[in-house]
User: What shape does this take?
Amino acid sequence: RLRLPPGQEILRVESPTDQTGQAIGKQLVLVLQAQGYRIEDNPRAAHRIGFAVMPLKAGALLTVTIDGGTAATLLARDAGGAMVLASGLSFREALP
Assistant: This one.
């Protein structure tokens, strides 16, 4: 939201092709649309968002790429088995 306010540009979400990646991608699109972002499956979209989920013993590592920059966070399972954030989000920008 700080880098790209909702409604200004078109975003393209690039999801992994496996079943889990597709399910997460669909949910991500719904969340972004609910926040006012325009999402299109258009190769010429102004901004690209991609992600990967790496399973770990205690949860997962979520890596998100936004226009060449990378953000990562750890997810862990709570007592009920739901995935919750276990750490803050760090973002590294690509050099020009």
User: Anything to note?
Assistant: The radius of gyration is 14 Å. The mean pLDDT is 83. The first helix runs from residue 19 to 34. The chain is about 15% helix and 40% strand.
